[in-house]
Write a structure and sequence with these properties.
Blueprint lengths: L8 H17 L7 H8 L3 H8 L2 H21 L7 H18 L1 H8 L17 H13 L7 H20 L5 H18 L17
Length: about 200
Amino acid sequence: MGRPRTNDAAVRERLVACATEMFATRPQESVTVRALAAVAGTSTAAVYTLFRGKDGLIREVRDRAVAGLFQDLTAVPASEAAVEDLYALAAAYRRWGCEHRHLYTVLFGGAQSFDPSGGVGDHDPVGPLLAAIDRAVAQGALAGDTTLIAVSIWVALHGLVTLELAGALHGAAAETAFRSTLDAVLRGWAPSAASPGPRRADAAR
């Protein structure tokens, strides 16, 4: 009998799925290659053959999370009202986080570090946010450094999504917290003579 294949597409997908859930629910140091292989029903050799080890598997999980979030954010259409677009982008970010809780936790929960003020690549999910902020500043609706505004929006959204995923916010309370928090952040960056502008009626979800 020949040796079973350990490097086919099915095994790769199983390892990524298992790793996503394990990194989202356990401390990273407790997730060993042996444990990953056992849960995925394969051998430790498969992890090294397909990903060159645990770090490579983490990168694959994170890359998929980044790609999914980027796709959802770039799907938000740009309008002439940049601040309304910021509400729509925030809603898309929140929706993606709630619909992909394991991926969100891997992306922002400590399995990989995240620097919102670091360099921005062509497929970085922060790109659409920075573009909308630049337009809002150019339109006079916001005033300040684009990166600082982006960090403040992300900090608020990350806190909200994290609380929602943990079950501390849900239903009407989550909707109210989302709207009021984003209102407050954008008001804080508005010039004294301007207000952040109206929200889209459908921006909350």
